[in-house]
Known about the structure:
mainly alpha
Amino acid sequence: MPRGSDPPARLRRWTGFLLAWVAASGAEHYGRALTSLNLKAHHLGVLILLQDGPMVQSRLSEHLGVFKPVMVSLINDLEALALVRRMPHPTDRRAVEVHLLPAGRSRIRTAEKVSRSATDEFFAPLTPAERRVFHDLLAKLVDRPPTQE
Length: 149
């Protein structure tokens, strides 16, 4: 999708297409904003999940919905940036815990500002009330029971 372009008029009546278009555009916009912090959205997700304490690497994969090999790469990246550290689990020799380092906490605080700015830019066409409704509707879709296949 070319940056700054609009979907063709014939496709605007298709809600699913519009959702995919806006999601791709929003992900691109948010991704560019996080690049200034040398992060991607999933990196930030890992950091945020670790705020409440260390977490087993496989559990992080489950919470973020990424395959375990992807999580290994994400943690490798975050370790290279000195934002997290892997440590052996205290009671399970097979498990590895991921710990948030002080630099990781600091990066989260900076990311909050960058995220807020990127969100304000992207959602500028919406009023504050419309943004809240949109957010609540997205949360409702996330919270729905899984569909039966």
